[in-house]
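Protein modeling request. Please complete all fields; requests missing the sequence field cannot be processed.
Requester role: graduate student
Desired output: 3D structure, token encoding
Chains: 1
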Amino acid sequence: LRAANALLQQRRYHAALAVIKGFRNGAVYGAKIRAPHALVMTFLFKSGSLREKLKSIAQATYAHSRNLAYFVFTYKGLLAAQSRLQGKKNPFHSFLAACIGGWLVFGDNNPINSQIIMYLLSRILFGLSRLAVEKGYIPQPKQDPFPLVAALVWGTVLWLFEYHRETLQPSLQSSMTYLYEDSEVWHDLSDFLIYNKRTDSK
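Delivered output (202 residues):
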């Protein structure tokens, strides 16, 4: 234990150790984020036996955790390599390392990667908008633009749901079906207030 702690304090190994810890943090964070989300979405919207549901949750959690761990490992490793080759850090290093990591780790078009990319895309758009104002590329709005953004986002997503549903992600389709279509159907008090849908036996 002492030898391990002494090794961890060596500055010359800091970059390599940061890559390893980044892998660890990616795995842990991915599991923490995905497990509760998969648990809720699976039991809310997916049919099947308890065993099948638990298997689906485990698979989604593992995929998210693994991908995030691989990405952080790749990103930090490439950052360290570029910095070592050029002798200093450069802002472009971050972009290039992340592009390569994104291509290698998140390039497969599957439900998990798709959700992560959409999550990031929305935050990127907000971030770039704020940066454009901060740098003076666009003028500071006189009024808070958020109400307009909220109106356009909700207007667009409900229009897509109603008329071009196939363009939306399956989990979003499920959520919107539950909210906007299932609320149109009931038979008695049980499936009006207590349950969403009446079972076949009723």
